[in-house]
Amino acid sequence: MSPRAPRVYSTRAIVLGQREFVEAAKVITILTPDVGKQDSVAKGVLKPKSRLAGHLEPGTYCDLELAVAKNLDIIREAQTISRFRASQQNLMQLTTLIYVLELVDKYTVDGTGSDLFEPLLVTLERLDRGINLSAVVHGFELTILEITGFRPSLDQCIHCLSSVDSVKANWSQDGGGIVCERCVSVIPDTSLIEPRVLKVLRAYQSWPYEESARIAIDSNLEAQLSRVMHGLMKAFAERDIKSADLLEEISWRNELSNGRGMS
Ligand SMILES: [Zn+2]
Known about the structure:
- The chain has 263 residues and is an alpha+beta fold.
- It folds into 2 domains: 8-82, CATH 2.40.50.140; 85-253, Recombination protein O, C-terminal domain (de novo design (two linked rop proteins), Up-down Bundle), CATH 1.20.1440.
- The protein is built from 8 helices and 8 strands, in the order E-E-E-E-E-H-H-H-H-E-E-E-H-H-H-H.
- The strands form 2 sheets. The chain has a 5-stranded mixed beta barrel. Strands 7-6-8 form a 3-stranded antiparallel β-sheet, with no helix packed on it.
- Helix 2 runs parallel beside helix 4 and helix 4 packs parallel to helix 7.
- The relative contact order is 0.12.
- Bound molecules: zinc ion.
- Residues 157, 159-160, 162, 180, 182-183 line the site of zinc ion (ZN).
């Protein structure tokens, strides 16, 4: 009796990461629209003539055919839909790409995150255009927090729920939002948040991308936005996000292309 043929299925996927496995195989972590995050095995990818290898680099958007296996499903076919080439060729874009992939990985466990697939895909496409990076990356951070149930409170005080004017707001990273003047004495570890930082974050959280991307962002403002958002992303993920530090380092040395068409 011959063994039963394995069940095979096709899916679109975004490759989040990969790691070495037994022999010439690798474990490929993918995000799919139906399952969310899952680990799968690509056999023979370390061999020179592998037809899979070129399609499974982190950040690749691809069509996959997988065979169901007892533990990890096995990738049988892979075809690249987009490799986001422009992002691969610019250090700032590439580091941002790695950062958004790491965020998705840190904010999901196996079998969750299917609702992050389309937002991630849109983010990779916008990132590849290389403009308005501030709105692209911080908008995506806020989307992840929203979808995973950590929506930061940017309009109401996290303690008394009163609406807070951006001029008088304090910031609580661990509380995930702003604190009004009356409540600041009862919430530990608050700091002042600059009105313009809060205003931009509110826009990134609630405006459509096409509008928020038109806000002009200078490098000083971007540094503050990054500090607030990276702090929040690390605090809620409850672990370190390595590429966030790298991103901050690089952004100090690179001129960000933001607010194109605006002074
Ligand atoms: Zn309050």
